[in-house]
Amino acid sequence: MIRTFCAFDDGKEIAHGDLLSVARAVKAHLHTQGKRLVLIFDAESGRVTDVMLNGSDAETEAWIRENIADALPSLRKTRGRPKLGVVSREITLLPRQWEWLSGQPGGASVTLRRLVDAAAKDPDAQRRVAQEAAYRFAIAVAGNAPGFEEAMRALFAGDSVAFAGLIAAWPEDVRKRTALIADAAWPA
Fold first, then answer.
1. Tens of pLDDT, residues 3-16
2. Which of 89, 132, 147, 175 could serve as 166's disulfide partner, Cβ 3.0–4.6 Å?
3. Distance (Å, rounded) from C-alpha 118 to C-alpha 168?
4. Full strand arrangement of the beta sheet holding 38-42
């Protein structure tokens, strides 16, 4: 799955798509508009993503390849089991937890992947992830917008009707992207 990113300049979405395409669009935008504060976001997590935009497109691509390896499938590092997208990282557990994991069918890695997958499918967990992502995005682009605090209270309360009404006065692109990110936050 290709991660999607979006870029905003003063409440206006100037690009969305894969990170390299967004970075190129931001560079072109900055070339025509001059120095501006443009924010690039991971469209799923709502996190601001720093990208090196100085230099050529090739240098930007090389920077992305080195620093944000999973932004594009073609840029993924090949450690571990690359066909599965497995990434090796360190975790710290107590001895009794390691003992329990080692006794599970398939070993520690299989058990941990199974537990993470089960937790990620939990509807409450999915709602919390969507709420946090919408909050991260909204605070960066609309933290001073009218009704921001009330809208965030409605978001975390699961009140989609109040949320939609409270963000209605926000700039159109900000409102649309915030609503899109928050979409999974509402009870089914």
1. 899 999 999 999 99
2. 147
3. 36
4. 12-17, 5-9, 38-42
